């Protein structure tokens, strides 16, 4: 068997490709999410944000004088695959993971990260059980740079009570921890405000034909569809609803924040409302960073900058702690207030961000803008 000789120049090129700068990477960190499958657009958001953060951190001297190497894990938003990714991160001696995307992936993976002493910051998993259960089990090394379903549900529910009280509402969910979570929190809010849903239905996320569900909504004369689920099914539901004569307003959540939603649903997505944190890519202070993404022919939509912020805030805390030890960095994260591309970040005892904010957006011609209050 021939031995492959690697020149010094080739070795340096490999190091550069790994984001290691001019030296071999010495600290491994991870980005995990759906890099393939129907939610791959969100995986790309997480990966792109992570890659840019690693490049910027390495260019500024790294973490505690060491360069970072990014390890990317594809969980396809499948819980079993997520545990495999988490176990691989442990075996690869990763010290920190920015991920996962789906709550159904983050929750099982978080238990493995705890045992492997890996700090986890999710840019996207919003189900309250992730941090609530972790806190109850003594897991102090899990954080989010996004809000929670109970905040999103209140935001969407309050908007419905203000603008659509008295209308017939169908609350739909895809049975996932995320989809059912946001749907149930919205239901709680409107019920508390004296509004009772006309329908509460589950659907299967992988379905392509929603005729039976749409017919049921037509018979119930539904005015508002609250969608607790992801954009592929959401785009099909609103498109087929319009094709079948149902003109109900759709209102969803953060999982609709991708250009793919309008690509799937076409003109039927015009007027769809959804919740998402304030759009960091539109903040003037981030103009130079956003331009760096655009120079790579990429629009940093959705969770891109939340992923970037997760890695940058971890690096800042690790530098302050003078350590990449999960417990030491977690303690430092909770003790400080961090300026980030998504605004000031402070973490509570559970690892949730303090004072999270969600805005309501409206889709028009494939683009989103803030909706009237």
Instruction: Give unreliable regions as ranges.
Output: 1-23
Please work out how many helical segments DSSP would assign: 13
The separation of the N and C termini measures 69 Å
Helix-strand pattern: HEHEHEHEHEHEHEHEHEHEHHHEEEE
Fraction of residues in helix: 40-55%
Strand content: 15-25%
Which radius of gyration do the C-alpha atoms yield?
Answer: 21 Å
Shape: globular
Strand order of the largest sheet: 7-6-8-9-10-13-14
Number of strands: 14
Largest sheet geometry = 7 strands, mixed
Mean pLDDT: 93
Q: Which structural class is indicated by helix and strand composition?
A: alpha/beta
Commentary on this structure:
With 373 residues, this protein is of the alpha/beta class. The protein has helices at 8-17, 40-59, 79-91, 103-115, 129-136, 149-163, 177-192, 211-219, 231-243, 259-265, 287-295, 304-321, 326-335; strands at residues 27-33, 68-74, 96-99, 119-122, 142-144, 169-173, 199-202, 224-228, 249-252, 273-276, 337-338, 345-346, 359-364, 367-370. Strands 7-6-8-9-10-13-14 form a seven-stranded mixed beta sheet. The model is unreliable at 1-23 (pLDDT under 50).
Features:
373 residues, single chain, 43% helix, disordered N terminus, alpha/beta, 7-stranded mixed sheet, 5-stranded parallel sheet
Summarize the structure.
Helices cover 43% and strands 16% of the residues.
Strand and helix layout:
Blueprint: H1 8-17, E1 27-33, H2 40-59, E2 68-74, H3 79-91, E3 96-99, H4 103-115, E4 119-122, H5 129-136, E5 142-144, H6 149-163, E6 169-173, H7 177-192, E7 199-202, H8 211-219, E8 224-228, H9 231-243, E9 249-252, H10 259-265, E10 273-276, H11 287-295, H12 304-321, H13 326-335, E11 337-338, E12 345-346, E13 359-364, E14 367-370
Parallel strand pairs: 1-2, 1-3, 3-4, 4-5, 6-7, 6-8, 8-9, 9-10
Antiparallel strand pairs: 10-13, 11-12, 13-14
Helix pairs in contact: 2-12, 3-4, 6-7, 9-10, 12-13
């Amino acid at each position: 068997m021939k031995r492959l000789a690697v020149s010094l120049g080739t070795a340096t090129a490999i190091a550069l490709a790994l984001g290691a700068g001019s030296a071999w990477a010495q600290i491994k960190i991870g980005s995990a999410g759906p890099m393939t499958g129907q939610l791959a657009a969100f995986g790309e958001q997480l990966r792109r944000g992570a890659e840019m953060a690693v490049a910027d951190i390495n260019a500024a001297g790294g973490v505690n004088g060491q360069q970072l190497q990014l390890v990317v894990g594809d969980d396809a938003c499948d819980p079993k695959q997520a545990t495999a990714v988490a176990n691989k991160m442990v075996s690869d001696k990763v010290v920190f993971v920015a991920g996962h995307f789906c709550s159904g992936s983050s929750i099982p993976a978080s238990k493995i990260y705890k045992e492997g002493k890996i700090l986890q910051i999710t840019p996207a998993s919003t189900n309250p059980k992730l941090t609530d259960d972790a806190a109850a089990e003594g897991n102090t090394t899990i954080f989010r740079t996004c809000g929670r379903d109970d905040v999103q549900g209140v935001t969407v529910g309050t908007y419905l009570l203000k603008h659509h009280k008295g209308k017939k509402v169908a609350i739909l969910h895809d049975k996932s921890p995320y989809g059912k979570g946001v749907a149930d929190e919205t239901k709680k809010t409107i019920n508390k405000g004296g509004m009772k849903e006309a329908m509460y239905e589950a659907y299967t996320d992988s379905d392509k034909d929603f005729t039976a569900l749409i017919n049921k909504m037509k018979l119930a004369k539904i005015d508002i569809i609250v969608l607790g689920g992801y954009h592929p099914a959401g785009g099909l539901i609103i498109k087929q609803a319009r094709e079948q004569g149902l003109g109900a307003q759709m209102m969803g959540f953060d999982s609709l924040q991708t250009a793919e939603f309008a690509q799937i649903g076409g003109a039927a997505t015009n007027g769809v409302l959804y919740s998402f944190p304030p759009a960091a890519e539109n903040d003037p202070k981030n103009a130079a960073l956003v331009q760096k993404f655009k120079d790579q022919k990429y629009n940093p939509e959705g969770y891109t900058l939340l992923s970037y912020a997760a890695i940058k805030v971890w690096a800042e805390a690790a530098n302050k702690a003078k350590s990449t030890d999960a417990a030491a960095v977690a303690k430092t994260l909770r003790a400080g207030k961090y300026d980030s591309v998504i605004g000031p970040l402070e973490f509570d005892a559970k690892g949730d961000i303090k004072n999270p904010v969600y805005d309501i957006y409206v889709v028009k011609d494939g683009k989103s803008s803030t909706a009237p209050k």
